[in-house]
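To close the chapter, one final illustration. This time we ask the reader to focus less on the individual chains and more on the assembly as a whole: which components sit near each other, and how the overall shape emerges from the parts.
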Amino acid sequence: MSKALDGVRILDFTHVQSGPTCTQLLAWFGADVIKVERAGAGDITREQLRDIPDVDSLYFTMLNHNKRSVTIDTKNPEGKQVLEALIQKCDVLVENFAPGALDRMGFTWERIQELNPRMIVASVKGFGPGPYEDCKVYENVAQCAGGAASTTGFDDGPPVVTGAQIGDSGTGLHLALGIVTALYQRTHSGRGQRVLAAMQDGVLNLCRVKLRDQQRLERTGVMKEYPQYPNGEFGKAVPRAGNASGGGQPGWILKCKGWETDPNAYIYFITQAPVWARICNVIGKEEWATDPDYATPAARLPHLKDIFAEIERWTMTKTKFEAMQILNKYDIPCGPILSMKEIAEEPSLRKTGTIVEVDHPTRGKYLTVGNPIKLSDSPTEVTRSPLLGEHTDEVMAELGYSPEQVSALRTAGAI
Ligand SMILES: CC(C)(COP(=O)(O)OP(=O)(O)OC[C@H]1O[C@@H](n2cnc3c(N)ncnc32)[C@H](O)[C@@H]1OP(=O)(O)O)[C@@H](O)C(=O)NCCC(=O)NCCS
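The assembled structure is written out below.
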């Protein structure tokens, strides 16, 4: 079966996490992704957090599936010529170097346009234009600057970063959407364009509801679904909301049977208004369904803490999976807190290709997260990440270089 992005060639100048997640998605949708790496070294993540000596790390392999790797020294004049040939042959150049690095290499937007006016140049940067535009940025810097850290954690503790890589992988996703959109516009404009996804912007986009709350707070001075209400104080900025659900349906994380020894024996429980009477029945508090202090969402808000404490008395008598089964029968929204071990072993995620076992020539078998976006006419087959420079000869031949020219360039250190 053909793939959605068949025929699209990506010059992948990305490294670490944000850029590689983007180009990996494009590869899964069928694009030919040619990863350009520094000879001898390659993407720094190849050797970071290694679990097997001298073998590409899981950090690298899990972010670079379905790509080809060529090594080029882009600061060597002959290496630059090879890169120029690639720019002429590709549709998209994706990069996430520190600000200015591509220009310093001699590949300004103007130069790239001279070489290929149809080229789309897509970049991840830490910040958009402004006071911080020249800063280097990693995941947690973006989480802090994008509003996630100040709104995550508990009121009596410091700001907290989340395990979800919303700065890196989140921005990679944003960039991928920008690229396919630019490719679509090119079908009628005939021109390339620049695509920028700043990590601060990507995180803020995912924290949209917190900017909503900032404005609600300024108007009313109080947000009744936050745990600070009615006993705590609201300041001038959106506070950390602990495990509150943030939407119109209050929720909290509750202990389940075994919590004393299992750090993940918890369930997320949502007191959704339409099923309130069923919740009362399940936990054995039938009288709450009609008691005016409990019967309506507005009446419940001032004592949510006590309500969740009562529900927890019930959840603590069940394992998270037992509770899930019972609550689902009554359409009560809830979710078990799954550990990474439980997720890795979950058969249904294997069946859908969300968790995939991949074989690698030097590492052997390992688990990875497959394509989370499923297209019915463009199925994803996850293949292993390339070894450093594994496809240099193959790609050089496709660019029209003879074996003699390739070996001369290799001797010159250009590739
Ligand atoms: C992630 C980041 C902090 C890493 O910084 P770094 O390791 O110092 O790497 P840089 O991006 O500065 O690139 C280092 C150099 O390698 C050079 N380089 C890269 N590939 C090369 C190649 N194939 N041949 C020769 N030189 C190469 C670059 O030109 C740059 O040189 P310069 O500083 O002399 O101009 C930085 O790239 C960054 O801020 N990126 C944008 C935001 C981002 O994506 N962050 C998330 C990462 S998950």
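The longest strand covers residues 32-37. Residues 16-19, 36, 38, 72-75, 96-98, 101, 104-105, 124-126, 136-138, 168 surround coenzyme A (CB under 6 Å). With these observations in hand, you are ready for the problems at the end of the chapter.
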